[in-house]
Amino acid sequence: MLVPIVGYAIGPRIFNRYLSELPNLAVVAGSLAIAALFYAPFAFSNLPAHMSTEVTWSVIGLAVGPTLAGFIVFFALIGEIGPVRTTVVTYVNPAVALILGVVLLGEPFTIGLGLGFPLVIAGSVLATRRRQPVTSRSSAAVEVAGPDPTM
């Protein structure tokens, strides 16, 4: 779990700093190709004896559809709101999945979910809120008093 966590943490910063001039689709394709090369030895060593056509098309559909679309949206968000605020999506996603599991699949609602979900949402809201510009006391006093009429 440490590798994906670190990847989600530094990936948007790398994209924003070094790859932001490249087309999003090229970056998505490159990152998925690198991940595929990394996982290929593990995948090929654990292939089932037989995969039905339905299963094969399902895997292809999941790889192309939600994965590709998710990455394209993720990189578009990096360009739009910045890398730090974009990474909050990775925290909200599991929380929403847990709630959908409870509602749609009848999974048990535990006290951990009851306490954790609001904390994740509150942390996400705090992490993504826009900060008000900080003004110094002297500039705030000038704004309140208005310009000096003697000048």
Mean pLDDT value: 79
User: What coarse outline follows from CA principal-axis ratios?
Assistant: flat
What is the straight-line distance between the termini?
Answer: 64 Å
Low-pLDDT segments: none
Radius of gyration: 23 Å
Largest sheet entry:
none
The topology string of helices and strands comes to HHHHHHH
| Strand-pairing-aware structural class | mainly alpha
The number of E-state strands comes to: 0
SS field, number of helical segments: 7
User: What fraction of residues sit in β-strands?
Assistant: under 5%
Helix content: over 70%
- Structurally, the number of domains stands at 2
Key descriptive features of the protein:
7 helices, 77% helix, 151 residues, mainly alpha
Describe the structure.
With 151 residues, this protein is mainly alpha-helical. It folds into two domains: 1-44 and 55-84, no CATH class; 88-128, no CATH class. It is 77% helix and 0% strand. The protein contains seven helices and no strands. The chain has helices at residues 2-19, 24-45, 53-81, 83-86, 89-105, 111-128, 137-145. Helix 2 (24-45) packs antiparallel against helix 3 (53-81) and helix 5 runs antiparallel to helix 6 (111-128). The longest helix has 29 residues, at 53-81. The protein starts with a helix and ends in a 6-residue tail after the last helix. The mean pLDDT is 79.
